[in-house]
Amino acid sequence: MENKILGLHHITAIADDAKRNLDFYTKVLGMRLVKKTVNFDDPGTYHFYFGNEQGEPGTILTFFPWEGIGKGTSGAGMATHIGYAVPHGSLDFWKNRLGEHQIALQEREIFGEKLISFQDPDGLQIQFIETDDNRNPWTSTDVNPAYALRGFHNVTLSLKEADPTIKVLTDILGYSIQKQDNNHYRLATDSIDTANVVDIIADRNLPYGKNAAGTNHHIAFRVKDDNVLMEYREKVLSAGLDITQKIDRDYFFSLYFREPGGVLFEIATDNPGFTVDEPLSSLGASLKLPKQYESYRSQIEETLPKLG
């Protein structure tokens, strides 16, 4: 690995009902609950991490399930579609499975790739895209390796205009434009073969989105360690953009900045990973708290929504 952005690290979205969110991603989509913790700024709210067995960067979708927050609106200034890689020939399985759960879907092609598109229970837009991807999936009795999600393929940003965001992606983050179809752009990085695609849809007439349940909060790009992270902090500052100090998120270190189109970008490290506080075999099994909240564990456990 070089000192480059290594595609997507994770994507974070907002949900409403915690149990419904947990059940959908683990029981319907067959993902692993990699980590069950709380929001750093609101410890009365869960923070779920769903991914593959190891919680490998590029597979992790995280949620803040704020009970009662109500439905948001996707729109300009947001990441609006999350694309997962699934094996060739698996879409029929997913169409049947989603149909069994009364989930409506659409079939289409984007840049020559076959996909199905549907919404999760909160309205978050998910796409399953048939593509070559050799990552090891998390599997279950219901979802075997021939069909299981491999991790992210792409994320789509909806923007008023594309050029300022494209400049950040190309000049700072090392992406390049691969394809364009009218107002739809595809960018990718050649530093890694998976979770390496960012699509942009530009539409000046698109209303701005409202963050609440069913919308994405931010997207995180991946770097190998703290040293590379801080190199990117200097690059972002040199481009005239504001960026946070390094933040310890227990399982990775992060920087945050808002790109010109309004999407909140994060840069996050591979280290230390999700096994720093529990073994691989039992990831997600127990509630893990940031150290500043450990002394309040009993109160927090009483406040959090029941998942049973």
Verbal overview:
The chain has 308 residues and is an alpha+beta fold. It has one domain (8-303): 2,3-Dihydroxybiphenyl 1,2-Dioxygenase, domain 1 (Roll), CATH 3.10.180.10. Helix content is 17%, strand content 36%. It is built from 5 helices and 16 strands. It has helices at 18-28, 91-100, 163-172, 226-238, 297-303; strands at residues 8-15, 32-39, 42-51, 60-65, 78-86, 105-110, 113-119, 125-130, 151-159, 176-181, 184-188, 197-202, 216-223, 247-248, 252-258, 264-272. Strands 2-3-4-1-13-16-15-14 form an 8-stranded mixed sheet. An 8-stranded mixed sheet has the order 6-7-8-5-9-12-11-10, with helices on one face. A hairpin with a 5-residue loop joins strand 7 and strand 8 (125-130). It is globular and about 50 Å long. The protein starts with 7 loop residues before the first strand and ends in a 5-residue tail after the last helix. The model has no long low-confidence stretch (mean pLDDT 97).
SSE diagram, text form:
Elements (H helix, E strand, L loop, with lengths): L7 E8 L2 H11 L3 E8 L2 E10 L8 E6 L12 E9 L4 H10 L4 E6 L2 E7 L5 E6 L20 E9 L3 H10 L3 E6 L2 E5 L8 E6 L13 E8 L2 H13 L8 E2 L3 E7 L5 E9 L24 H7 L5
Parallel strand pairs: 1-4, 5-8, 9-12, 13-16
Antiparallel strand pairs: 1-13, 2-3, 3-4, 5-9, 6-7, 7-8, 10-11, 11-12, 14-15, 15-16
